Amino acid sequence: RFCPWDGYEYKASDEMCPLCETGRQQSLYCGGKQEVLHRLLLPPWQRVLWKHQPYQDNHTDATFLDELITNANFSEYDFWRIVRDSVAVSQHCAATVVFLAMFCLTNYRGVRLRWMLLMDLLLGAAGCGAMLSIACYRRWRESGVPTLTAFLVQEARKVTIVSTLSALSTYLRICFLFLTAIYTLSPILRTLTQTISHDTVAAMTICFLSLHLFSHDYKFVNGIDKSFGGSVALNASMFVSVLLTSRSASNLHVALIMCCAVEIFALAPRVFRQVRLTSETAYCICAFFLFALALFLLQTLNTLLAFLFATVIFGITFVAPLTFMYIQRFKNHINGPWDEAVPTKRHDKMGR
Predict the structure, then answer these.
(1) Cβ(118)–Cβ(314) under 8 Å?
(2) Which residues pair with 311 in a beta bridge?
(3) Are 91 and 272 in contact, with CB atoms under 8 Å apart?
(4) pTM (2 decimals)?
(5) Looking at residues 43-64, what average pLDDT do you find?
(6) For the residues 39-66, what does the mean pLDDT come to?
(7) Which of 291, 256, 287 minimizes the C-alpha distance to 115?
(8) Does residue 285 have a pLDDT over 70?
(9) DSSP-derived 3-state class of residue 335
(10) What is the average pLDDT across 327-351?
């Protein structure tokens, strides 16, 4: 059925092998060709480039797949580790919902602006308190003092009224300049996109907020990247804020919206990063309270929206990691002699 020299499978009408031209009934001793004998006596193939060998360039020998490696760099993931990493996504979605809900409540539901002012103050105070607590905690860990209470007492003795007033005046001056600049520019921001129709504003808000959520630097929040790389996301969120200010009823409302946007989209990721690097437990607690706040605000707007938001957050936090863990079992990445050579840097010092 097969040619003994090259393995060709004979057909019913074949009288000789079309590859080596050997008769179907001939053997090595009665009718084999010289080229067949030459092929059997070829030297073994070597994996070198400098040596001339009687083989084709695409020749593969029997040991070609001996060096096959499957999933060489495979690392097994932990489910709860992925859940903790996905908290950054759900947390930022909740912060975005808080911003949109506060705008809708104050602009369309008749909620007084003092509640939005209170929200801005609470967010600012929470951020400052978190950063001060983190700085104090890190200094305590570096000081070697056995208890945190003893460290606070020790630091309180070093604090003077002059240094306290100097630091407080610096922070108050920065806040005053920031708020003054925003309130001064609020009439311009209010009329900047006022001629755009409501439907266009709504469509652009959805598009640019989606761009913001997809391009946000979640690696920075999780402590993987050292510098913030979400400039596209930040610009998209600020553009949405400017669009929404054109639907505000007063200049004070514009200023409050811009303050809320700066706190949530510009400052909050840096605070969340420091909290995550300091304590993952505190980070998850902050994310839970932010999610509860977003759910409460959406509940006052629409119960269905609150249910959909809770479903999306549950899917991002738990369903997506489970799906990722499931599809990991089908991963099949192969490595072998066909891969490009990767140069390795030698750390030993060679004498000259």
Answers:
(1) no
(2) none
(3) yes
(4) 0.74
(5) 76
(6) 74
(7) 256
(8) yes
(9) strand
(10) 71
At residue 30, the pLDDT reads 42
**Residue 270 contacts residue 228 (beta carbons within 8 Å):** yes
Tokens standing for residue 277: 């690097």
CA-based nearest residue to 114, from 252, 247, 290, 243: 252
- Of 260, 228, 216, 218, residue with least CA distance to 241: 260
**In angstroms, rounded to a whole number, what is the distance separating the alpha carbons of residues 266 and 237?**
9
Q: Can you count the helices (H) and strands (E) in the chain? A: 13, 2
Contacts of 100 (CB under 8 A, 6+ apart): 209
What is the distance between the alpha carbons of residues 297 and 303, in angstroms, rounded to a whole number? Answer: 10
Asked whether residue 60 carries a pLDDT value surpassing 80, the answer given is: no
How confident is the model at residue 35, as a pLDDT? 52
| Distance separating alpha carbons of residues 153 and 140, to the nearest angstrom | 11
Torsional class of 144: left (φ above 0), alpha (ψ -120 to 50), beta (otherwise): left
Asked whether the predicted pLDDT for residue 101 surpasses 80, the reply is yes
Inter-CA distances, 93 with 13, 214, 287, Å: 72, 10, 10
What token pair was written down for 93? 């979605």
At 351 the pLDDT is 47
Q: Which amino acid is at 238?
A: M
What's the full length of the chain, in residues?
352
Which amino acid is located at 248 in the chain? S
Looking at this protein, which amino acid is placed at residue 37? L
Query: Is the backbone of residue 81 left (phi > 0), alpha (psi -120 to 50) or beta?
Result: alpha
Q: b/e string for 199-221 if b means 16 or more Cβ within 10 A?
A: eebeeebeebbebbbebbbbbbb
Q: Is the pLDDT at 32 greater than 60, yes or no? A: no
Inter-residue contact 152 to 136 (CB < 8 Å): yes
Of 278, 259, 281, which Cα lies nearest the Cα of 268? 259
User: What is the rounded average pLDDT of the residues 322-342?
Assistant: 80
* Separation between Cα atoms, residue 284 and residue 268, nearest integer Å: 15
